[in-house]
Amino acid sequence: MGKTYDLIILGGGPAGYFAAERAAEGGLSVCVFEERNLGGVCLNEGCIPTKSLLYSAKIFDNTRHGADYGVTAENVSLDHEKVLARKAKTVKSLVAGVAGALKRLKVDVIAERAQITGKTDGKFTVEAAGQTSTGDRLLIAAGSEAVLPPIPGLKEGFGSGFVLTSREALDIPAVPKELAVIGGGVIGLELANYFALAGSKVTVVEMLPEVGGSIDADVARILRGNLEKIGLTFLLSAKAKEIGDGFLIVASPDGTETKINADKILLSIGRRASTDGLGLEKIGVLTERGAVVTDPYLRTNVPGVWAAGDINGKSMLAHTAYREAMAAVNDILGKPDPVRYDAIPQVIYTMPEAAGVGETEKSAAEKGIAYEVHQLPLLYSGRYLAETGGGDGICKLLIEKGTRRLLGAHLIGNYASEIILSPAILVGSAWPADTLKKIVFPHPTVGEILRDVLLEVK
Ligand code: NAI
What we know:
The protein is of the alpha/beta class. It is built from 16 helices and 24 strands.
């Protein structure tokens, strides 16, 4: 028989480990079950490793173009093996940091797959490796996995190592000569960007008329243009139809088919909550379209059970997971803390970076919100000009008519990932544009473009 805890957490990714830290700090006895590695997809095979790879590619690209900046370098090359080794070191160090923090907080970490088995004497029972642990409360934070569509040949392609998800793609020992990417969303674009700079001939197949999913339409178009400039090919409004040995067949809406030769195929058409085999049905946890149903407090329909992170399918982002984990633990500790989902920033870490928060023109129109658009090229920023020499980045703000508050902000260009926090705070506030204009931005920064766009709001 295992131990009894105040809180049992299924999954040690951003939602699970962050919740464990907060709960232990709040005085609860906590156990985390993690079958793979602490840190989950984000630290081990998602956010962090891709940022490590992309940073290597950025240095490589900057060095190649150093002459434009008065820096000469000869025989510049990117050593993919060394890039992977550096990535592995970064991941190892971060995962060790999480393990160390949990240890210091006396959180039990059990490296096993756990399954909910029921509820006995008012306590939830969880089984892992033949041992049963019991908990007064459960937090389900089991994350998500890549969606595998029923494309003929896909299963065989996985079996032979021809088709990869981001998990495998982040560890392939050699850069493929030709890479086909199915899905031009966040994962597809970030990895396509890395492999294109690392030397692959990359073709991205996207079923929708534009890449980038729900990001602002102008930002998406500019991003695609920049990626085309480094050699990526995009097939838009095109669906992957069949996978064969060394090729992919793509169907366009007009019925024409294109054959793309490839050494590897990356499948990045979205992720789905990993609810299978958790034993949710044993205690009656409600799911909808495969994800656990939660309210803004991260409560499920079962009292004593919360669910945070990708598992609830609300916003599959690590930063949402951190916030949800904190809110769930606050609720458990008797301090109800609802999550606001209207000001969650979204970033694509490509070169250039794209970032957005709040409403887009499309979402605002769909909701019937009356808005004005104000936009400037980033070239209005002295620092942007000094560093890019002439990029096509933009900053677009949506202002609500009447209240004149900030509804949304969308940027493409260097530092967009870091700049987006300020508009995220402002979208979350109800301050009108005239108040926002008075904020003092450091100069020279690319971020001060926000003030310049705000000054356009008359
Ligand atoms: P995604 O939902 O961002 O993009 C999937 C794309 O595939 C969509 O544009 C969709 O139209 C397209 N698609 C779907 N079926 C297709 C088909 N049969 N043929 C061609 N195209 C097809 O999903 P992605 O990129 O796999 O990312 C998964 C999750 O991971 C997302 O929720 C994302 O937010 C998260 N993530 C976030 C990152 C970040 O914040 N920087 C980085 C990487 C992932």
